[in-house]
Amino acid sequence: MAINPKKHEMPVQSAEERARNFGEVALGYTPEIAVAEAQRCLNCKNRPCVDGCPVNINIPDFISRVKTGDFEGAYDTISLSSSLPAVCGRVCPQETQCESKCTLGIKFEPVGIGRIERFVADWHNANFKGEIALPESNGHRVAVVGSGPSGLTCAGDLAKKGYKVTVFEALHTAGGVLVYGIPEFRLPKDIVSKEVETLKKYGVEIKTNVVIGKTLTVDELFEDGFEAVFVGSGAGLPRFMSIKGESLKGVYSANEFLTRANLMKAYKKDSQTPVMHAENVAVVGGGNVAMDAARTALRLGAKNVYIVYRRSMTELPARREEVEHAEEEGVKFEILRNPVEILGYNNPENPRDQKNGFVRGIKLIKCGLGEPDERGRRKPVEIEGSEYELDVECVIMSIGTSPNPLIKSTTAGLDVNGRGGIIVEESTGATSKQGVFAGGDAVTGAATVILAMGAGKTAAKAIDEYLLKN
Amino acid sequence: MNKIRFAAVEFPHDPKVKGNKYWYICPFEGVKEGDKVCAPLGRRGGEQSGVVREVVYTDETHAPYPPEAAKRIIKPVAETGDYEIVKKRSLNTTVTLMEIYAPLVAKKAEAGQFVILRVNGEGERIPLTIAGYDRSAGTVRIIYQIVGATTMLLDEKRAGECLSDFVGPLGCATRTDGVKKVCIVGGGVGCAIALPVAKKFHELGCEVHSIIGFRSEELVILEDEFAACSDSLKIMTDDGSYGEKGLVTQPLKAAIERGENYDEVIAIGPLVMMKFVVATTKPYGVKTTVSMNPVMIDGTGMCGGCRLTIGGKTRFACVDGPDFDGFEVDFDEAIARSNAYAEFERHSRENCLLMKERKNNGD
C-alpha cells in the first residue's frame, strides 16, 4: 500500500465561526483517522523522533499500539514519559521537535505525532474507567513550587516513583500558565484540570494560595521536613518598552490581558473581572503569547487586530500553526514595524471627558532588516521619517518577561544570573543551594511548555538520585 | 408555659474569651452540640463564629440566662472551608472589619503588606491591605469599604462562613529602620491600614503623631485604637462635624512649621489625599512614604496590572511596593489609571444591588 504523502488533516472549527467563540479550534482526530495516520509511521530502526522529544516519549511504540487499536496501551506508553499527554498533544511545537526528525518527513510530510498523541490522551480521558496502580510510598517528601508544566511534570514523575509530593501554587487554581496564559480555544481548562486530577490520584497534594517566598520560604520548607525542593515558579514580571504612553488606560501586558480573559473568565458575560472589549487592538510582539493575545482579542469582539512585529514573517518566533490560525481568523500582520509611542485621548476643552487618558492610537515606525545578530536573526533597522499612526483603543505588550524576584530575594544561597534567572546545572536542574532544583521559565525566561516539562523531568530524575544517595 | 431553646456557645478562635461559654436564645430548631453558629458578641455589635457546646429546651423559670437579657443566635452555619470569617463588625455604614482564620498568613503578616481574596469560586481577586493580625489566634484582620460588587458580596458573608481564597502576606512590609519620630496621616478607610503602621512604630518606641481625616462624624473609625498608639492624635472632618474642620494637610503643615522635625511622614488614604500630603511635605524636604493600592490580579509579580511610574521608572506595587517614596510617585497617572474600569464597576454594582433587592423582595 502506497504511503499517503500528506498528514491527515486535523478537523477544525471554520475560521469564521471560531474567531467569535472560545471553543477549541482543533477538534481532534476520530479513531479512524488516528489509526490511518498511525499507519503512515515506518517504524524505522533508528527512531530519531524520540531524540526530538524533550521528554523522550517512546513514540514508535505508542504509534504501533494505535495502529492495532490498543489506545489504552498507547496511553500507558506515553505516560511512562509524560505526565501531561493531553496538554502536550495540543501545545507542543512538534514541527520543530519530534516531527522535524521523522524519517518519513525526508520525502513526505512527517507523521502527525502530536495529533495522534492528543487523540490517545483524549481517548483515555473519555474512556478509562479503571483504577490507577499506586506506587509504594518510599517515605521521602518533596516540595514543588509552582503548578505549571515544569512543576506538574516533576511532581508526577516523583509521585510515580513513590515520593510524597506537595505542590505549592500561588494562585487559586493549579496549572500555572496552562490556566492563566494559554487560552481556552487552544487548551480547554477542563483538560488541564483532568490532568491535575490524575496527578492527585497518584498522591500528589496541591496547596493553592501559598506564595513561596512570602507565605513560606524555601528554607521553611526544609524545616517542615521536605528533603528536596523543585522551583518551577515560572516567568515573572512582564516587560514593557519604556516608550511614551505605556501607562495609558487600555495598555495591557499580555499576561494581564490573558489572565483576565482565561483565569478570571472575563470573556463570560457574568464574570466579575472586567477586561476591555476594544474594536481595534494592537499586539506588540511575535511570539506564541502574542498570537494568543491577538486571537483572544478577536474573540472578545475586536474588528481589527494587528500584530506589530519588528522583523519579517520568516523571523516570527511563534509556531507556524498558530500564525496560520491567526491569519485565517483575520489577524492582520504589521510586520517590520516598531512602536514609537502610544497615543492617548485628551480633550483639552473638557478635563472630565470620560475618554481622557485612554488609548486612541499607536505610532509605528517602519523597519528594514540589517545584519544578523549574535543569534543569527537579522536585526531590524528603523527607517527614518517613516512613522505613521494606527487607530487602536487597546495595546497589548507581549515582549517577554523577566524572572520573578520573590524566591531569589528570600532564599539565601540561591544564585541567579544577570537577567534574574536561577542558575542550574543543565543535566540535573541542581541549583547552587543544596537540595534545591529548578526548571522552566524561572530558569530560562519565557520558553515553551514542553521545554519546561523536560526540565521538570530532568529535575525529578536528579532529585530521585540525590535522595537515594543521601 | 412556653418553652425556650437556649444554646451555650464557645468562641474558640477568640483568645480573649476562649474556653468561656455564653448562653443565647436559639430560634433555630435542630441546632445541636458541636454545630457552628454565627452569634453576636461584645458591646460593639460584632458577630463571631462560635461552636454550640450545650442545648437546653426549657421554660422561663429554669432558663440558664434571663431570656429578656439574652442575645439571639444569628444563624447556624453549615459551611466549612479553609478561610473562615471568625469575626465581623461594622465600623460605620460603609466600612466593615473582618478577622479571617488564615494561620500561615497571620504568621508572616507585617504592617504595610496586603492579601488577595476571592469571596466565592467565581469571584474577582481583590487586594486588601492587612489591618492587623493575631499570630497566636492565626487570624488576619481586614477592613474594607463597600464600594463595588465584590465588596458587596463580601459584606453578605457572616461570621462562621468562609472565603474561597485568601493569600498573602504579599508586598513588602513598611520600613521602620532609623525612624524615631513619625507622623502617620490616614484618610477614610485608609486609616484601617494606617493603624497597624502606627502601632508598629509605637511598639518600636518611636514618637507617633497621627492625623486622621474623614468626610464627617458618622464615618470616623478606629479613634480609640489610634489614641492608644499615638503620642498625639488629631481628627479632621471635611464638614467639621467631629474633631476639627478641614483637611489632614492643614495640621500636618502646621506641625512641620512648628518644628516637629519628623524623620518620616507616612500617608495612607485616597490617591488625591496622598498627592496633597506629598505636596505639603515636599517643600520642607520631609521624607514621605505613601501606600499605593492599584488594580491587581495575581499580586505576585506576574500580570503587571499594578504598574506605577516611580521616579520615571515602571515599578510593580505587588512586589516592589505597596509603599513608595511619595516624592517619586506619578500621582496623576495613578489617579487616571485607577478609574480604568469605572464603567464596568458601576454596572456590576448596580447588578449586585438589583439582585439584593430581588432577594429581599423574595422574587
In short:
By secondary structure, chain A is of the alpha/beta class.
Word description of this protein:
The complex is a heterodimer of chains A (470) and B (363). Chain A folds into three domains: 15-127, Orthogonal Bundle (Fumarate Reductase Iron-sulfur Protein, Chain B, domain 2); 141-236 and 403-469, FAD/NAD(P)-binding domain, CATH 3.50.50.60; 239-401, FAD/NAD(P)-binding domain, CATH 3.50.50. Chain A is globular. Chain A has 19 helices and 16 strands. Helices cover 34% and strands 16% of the residues of chain A. With 470 residues, chain A is α/β, with parallel strands linked by helices. Chain A has a five-stranded parallel β-sheet with strand order 3-2-1-4-16. With 363 residues, chain B is α+β, with helices and mostly antiparallel strands. Chain B folds into three domains: 3-77, GIY-YIG endonuclease, CATH 3.40.1440; 83-170, Translation factors (Elongation Factor Tu (Ef-tu), domain 3, Beta Barrel); 181-338, Nucleotide-binding domain of ferredoxin-NADP reductase (FNR) module (Rossmann fold, 3-Layer(aba) Sandwich), CATH 3.40.50. Chain B is 23% helix and 34% strand. Chain B has helices at 103-108, 149-156, 191-203, 223-229, 249-257, 271-281, 317-320, 331-338, 342-360; strands spanning 3-10, 22-25, 36-41, 46-59, 75-77, 83-92, 95-101, 114-118, 126-129, 132-134, 139-145, 162-163, 165-170, 181-187, 207-214, 232-237, 244-245, 264-268, 288-291, 307-310, 313-316, 323-325. In chain B, the strands form four sheets. In chain B, strands 1, 2, 3, 4, 5, 6, 7, 10, 11 and 12 form a ten-stranded antiparallel β-sheet that branches. In chain B, α5 (249-257) runs parallel beside α6 (271-281). The model of chain B has no long low-confidence stretch (mean pLDDT 91). Chains A and B meet through β5 and α14 of A and α1, β13, α8 and α9 of B.
